[in-house]
Structure formats: C-alpha cells, structure tokens
Amino acid sequence: GDFSHIAIADQLFVDCIGGDLTVKIENNTKDGKGIYREPVEDANQTLDDAEIAYAVVGALIILKIKPYREEAYRYLVYNTRTEHVIRIDAIGLSCLQLPEDQGVIFPGGYYLRTGDYKVFDGDSKALVFRRLFRAPNGEDVLYVYDRVEDGLYMLLPYNLIRKEIANPISCHGYSIFDDGKMVIFKSLSDEPTKVHPMQIWQTPFCTQEHAAAAPTDGSYLAKVGNAELVRGISEALTLQRMSSVEKPTRQSYEDVVASCNRMVDGFYWLPEADACNMAEAVAGLLGTADLIIDEFEKVTAIKKRSAQALAKTEESQLKIINSLRTNDIKAIEEFMGSLTELRKQRGHLITLREMRYMDLPRIDVLEQQVVKAFDEVSKGAVEFLLQPTALEPLVTRLSDVVTKVGEAQKATELKPMAEDVDKVGEGLQVLSDIINGLAIEDPTQRTRILEGISEAYSQLNRARATLAGRKKELAGAEGRSEFAAQFKLFGQSVVSTLALCDTPEKCDEALSRLLLSLEELEG
C-alpha cells in the first residue's frame, strides 16, 4: 500500500520510512499514522533498510530496532492489554521475565503487564545478570547483576505482592547468610584502602531450613501457608489494577474475567472468613466485567465515530483558516463567503459537542480558532465596506440574475439562479449581524454602510420576487403541457387495454391499473 510496514506476530505493524519510526496496531496501509511515532535520522530509507527484532514475553512484545545509518538500537515495549507503546533503551541490558508473567526486569528498572513501569537513575551500562535468590515466603525475589570492569554489583529485590522494586542496592561485594542477613560493602575510591564501609541488611532471603524452623500461630491462614497466600494476594492486587485502568480495552476486561475465574478455581481459601470472604468480591467483579464486555463494542464504535468526526472537522477547519487572507480580499463576495463558512464551521463544532465521548477540550480550542478568525475577517469587511463602491459588484450581480430570470425558458434553469440568490442573502445577513454587533465610532460611516446594505437588500428582494413569479409562470405552463400529454397517454392506454381484455381476470387487473393512473392524474 501507500505506507508499507512489517507485521510483528500479526499484532503489531512497524516501519521506519517517511521520516519516522511508526508503530501501528491496525494493518492499515492507507495512512502512516499509528499509536507511536518518533523521528529517524535518515528519512529516505526503505522498508528493508532497518533492522527489526522482537520477542513476545507474555502480554508484552519487546522490539529491538536500528533504523538505517544509525549506530544505537532503540528498544520499545508494546503492551497488548493497554495497547500502549513506550521506549525504554535500558531493556537492552540483560532483560528477564518476572515470575507469574508479571512483566520484565532489567538492570535499570522494570515494566509490568499492567502498564506500570519504573526506570532508575544511575549507571547501569554493561551490567550482566549473575544469579537469582528466591525467598521462602514466596513473596520476594532478588536479582543480582554485576559489571566485570569495575566489580560493581546491582541488587534488585522485587516484591510479587507490591509488584515493585523497593530500593535498588549498588555495592562492590555482598554476602547472604542462612538467617537472611545480608552484608554489603562499597568502595569509595579507586585507590587501595584498609578500611571498607559495610552495611548489614535484614532480608527475607533466608534458607528453607531457617524458614521452616520459625514458629507459627496455628491460625487457618498459617495452615494455608505464606507462599500460597502471597500468590492469592498478588493475584487480587493485579485484578484490582486491571479493573481500574484509565483507558480500558475489551482485552483488559476479558483479562479481568479470566483472572477472576483463575482466582476462584485456584485458591480454595477465598470464601473463608479469615480471608475476608474475598470470593464474594471476586464474584461481583466477574459479573460486572461480563456486563461491560457486552456493551464495550458499542462504546468502542461510538468513540471511533466521534474521533473520525473530530479529525474530519479539524481537517476542514484547517483548510478554511489557511485559505483566509484578509489583506488579499478585493471583493465583498469573498468577505461574505469567508464569513459564512466560518459561521457554518462554528455551528458544526457546536453540534459535535452533542456526540458522546467527544474530546470537548479539543472542541474548545477549535472554536476559539474560528472565533478569532471570524473577528479578523469581520474587521476587514467593515473597513472594506467604508469604500463607496464596495457593494456595487453585489448589486450588479443581483441585477444580472433578474435579467437572466426573464430570459429563462424552463423551470430547471431557475434552480442555479435561486441558489445564487440564497447564497447572496445569507452573506448579507452575516454582514448585517456584523455591523450591528461592532461599535463604529463615526455614526456617518455606520449610516453609509447600512444604506449600502439596505440597497443591496432591496435588489435581493427584487430578484427573489422576480424569480418566484417566473418560476410560478413556467411551472404552470409546463404543468399544463405535462397534464395534457399524460391525459392523452391515458386515453390511448384505455383503448389499448380494451383490446387486451378478453377474460374477467384481465378486465379487473386492467381496471385497477387504469384507476390508479387516474388518481395520479387527479393529484
């Protein structure tokens, strides 16, 4: 098509042509717009010039792209649930998938399937993943990265319930003991030293034996087990976030339904009183999500129509405003046409406000542009009307219409003349409203303008009266001629039908048809 692109897993469509890197979610080759765009250095590249790689990681699609003649790769993350794209170049460093398909983690931060992400400050260049620690509580995971060049370690403790990295720890050495204590030290300078500052942290990353030896209170939740509770609470928090996104999609509601069913089937302890009877809340959310899915397609269609109407209006308004050159207008007809177009555009904007899911702030901006342009053209029109001969071309135009009306031989010839007269009348009405609304200091000038418009109105009324009279005259003559021809045809039809009526059935059928024709003639 006009805008070629590469399909990624039949869900995403990417190209680097036309001066920008574009990501689309619709396989549309008629336009080059998408959900994400950013400029490229070489605008003249073809579709095959860029290097494009991808990885599907659960609900995420990660893109690695290097446009033509560029040195660095660009890393983009597309979330199939939120239909949102973001560029995070740090993903290029040792990117790993988080447990339970919660997202991805990398030395510089993390990105979750819910759309939440965070990128930390600091130098994460050349860091490589080294090892992974899992806490016995099933809630915490520690990712260890290091850099061989200077011996730097980056420790990222990720919490599955809060779905975040609380505080990244950078150091030059660490040790984790059986009871979960962690000792780290940092090098404050590149020079050798005998003293190294150290820190002691209490972490949940103890051994399985140490965790098993810890006493329990014997409650129902203790019997369920912390790891099982962590999975259930994590799923519940994910469900809460999924159900409260700012821009939901049908897919996000379907994910809510799937997550609700997964929770009910996977955690037997949800209906218990000690677990606050979470099953009831999950069931209520499931019912609501099912109802929303049924109506979501209607809402999506309405939003799409509203967006298309707004885009079409923006395009037409841009053409109208760009065509306005007040200093270049040399005739009153051009002023009248411009003012009429601007008034119609403002009326159209007002009607758009009634559409559901319309972008009202954008409508306000467009209306302000129209008002500003209308005021500028109005002032130019008033200055033009101060000229003694400003309205003469308009009066001459209406006089020509009167002459042409008298020469017309058919009623159809009067239609374009009537449209021309109506257009002039609409423009004169706009001019009258402008003069009445503007404060002109010199009453003599105001009077002269009003007298000129009054003369144009008199010529307009004369043209309308002449047009109406001629139309009635021609329509009457044409109607009488048409009736005579139809009546003659009816008589011939009667004679012809009599010759064909050789059975009672044909007589009845022919009589019905002739009576119908007679009723039409009577009308």
Q: Mean pLDDT, rounded to whole units?
A: 82
Quaternary structure state of the chains depicted: single chain
Q: What is the approximate shape? A: elongated
Structural class: alpha+beta
**Total beta strands:** 20
The portion of residues forming beta strands comes to: 15-25%
Q: Report on the biggest sheet.
A: 5 strands, antiparallel
Number of helices: 11
User: What is Rg?
Assistant: 39 Å
End-to-end span in angstroms? 56 Å
- The stretches of 5 or more residues where confidence is low (pLDDT under 50) are none
Q: Report helical residue fraction.
A: 40-55%
Could you explain how this protein is built, in words?
This protein is α+β, with helices and mostly antiparallel strands and 523 residues long. The protein has helices at residues 208-212, 220-224, 226-242, 250-266, 278-322, 332-352, 360-385, 392-407, 414-437, 443-500, 504-522, and strands at residues 6-8, 12-15, 20-24, 36-39, 51-57, 60-66, 74-79, 84-87, 96-97, 103-106, 109-112, 117-119, 128-134, 140-147, 152-159, 164-165, 169-171, 173-176, 181-185, 198-202. Strands 13, 14, 15, 16 and 17 form a five-stranded antiparallel β-sheet that branches. A four-stranded antiparallel β-sheet has the order 1-2-3-4, with no helix packed on it. The chain has a four-stranded antiparallel β-sheet with strand order 5-6-7-8, with no helix packed on it. Strand 10 and strand 11 (109-112) form a beta hairpin. Helix 5 (278-322) runs antiparallel to helix 6 and helix 5 (278-322) runs parallel beside helix 7 (360-385). The mean pLDDT is 82.
